[in-house]
Amino acid sequence: MFDALAERLESAWKTLRGQDKITETNIQEALREVRRALLEADVNLQVAKDFIETVRQRAIGAEVIAGVRPDQQFIKIVYDALVEIMGESYSPLAQADPSPTIILMAGLQGTGKTTAAAKLALHLRKENRRALLVATDVYRPAAIDQLVTLGKQIDVPVFELGTEANPVEIAQRGVAHAKALGVDTVIIDTAGRLQIDTEMMAELAAIKDAVQPHETLLVVDAMTGQEAANLTRAFHEQVGITGAILTKLDGDTRGGAALSVRQVSGQPIKFIGVGEKVEALQPFYPDRLASRILGMGDVLTLVEKAQEEVDLADAEKMSRKILEAQFDFDDFLKQMRLLRNMGSLAGIMKLIPGMNKVSSEQLQQGEVQLKRAEAMINSMTREERRNPELLAGSPSRRQRVAKGSGYQVADVSKLVSDFQRMRSLMQQMGQGQFGMPGMPMMP
Ligand code: GDP
Fold it and tell me: By its UniProt entry, which PROSITE patterns does this protein fall under (predicted)?
């Protein structure tokens, strides 16, 4: 996501690179590029204008810091403004005391509202919070069925009264039911329409009035682009929202909606939807998204992802091994599997600064190479895996591994020499906590 925006911004930096200071004139071109990039990313026109104005004022007034290039300084100014416009920091869900916390879901039909309700329930469970889902879309029996099915899938209870009941009453009884069950959160799914519609808004407002939710979350489809601003404005003015969930950010979206929502409503985006599966929900971190937009990579997400997978003691052991050049094929295999668990190589590479320029072809080649390496290592004996020198010194061993894995002897020799080179490289770097042993072997 956001690739197009990042690419456009690249030329904005270029116009400033090589200049020795930021001036009224050289910033014109850069600002024009930023503006063009934002509009192409479907950022609302007014939002883009305000943003450019902020950046212009800050850039022109900025002291040129010694040792920093103007383009770098400009990137920093744009980055800070982006983070600011998207809401500074992660904004967690309200937690009511006494419970239950009541969350009202709002949004147009098809935006992913029902899915988001279930995703949220699952997310809460990971935080040891228990939710009840409430189905109030009495106009579409399929919507109720969908919520019931999702509830079963994630093992979260669903409260519904069929299609004959009144949505306001369902919501109220749902909250009462949650209290009886002793769950701490109620997530109320509501009816959406294809377009903003006075009846829908009135119903939503009535439910809100009746249950006094702690959160009213607007679900916005990131693909809506420009429209996101109008949509947010309408819901915020007529119902009042406390935050938003931006869905379908995994798709081919231009992401401008992320900037519009906060700017228009003053309310934060709390979560993003990144896929159809119930697990595909992530907390929204403005700073990370800003670096992603600017093509600075998203190191934080990467590190966090790695941390989820690596047990710390294990990581320590691994770095000690690297420092002492004891890193062997077993460790290599372990790290490769870790990489794979973290997602595809392509996904990970995108998160590393400077790596987002790697072509998909190169990435595919990388994945293939990793698989080949794995097959060859699997054909090694335990001693060989622990002591790669055995292979380096014995053509017959390499031949056996080649035969066992279905590759050529030359492939095995290359793997062994690459491995040795990588190991000494890692030792030199001396700090491969999350060791990316696949990298030196990248084509
Ligand atoms: P609702 O009408 O707003 O309740 O929308 P649904 O929850 O039924 O979702 C509409 C469609 O969007 C479904 O096919 C979902 O699987 C899909 N969807 C929801 N969230 C996401 C997301 O984050 N990414 C992708 N790719 N699809 C999503």
Answer: SRP54 (PS00300)
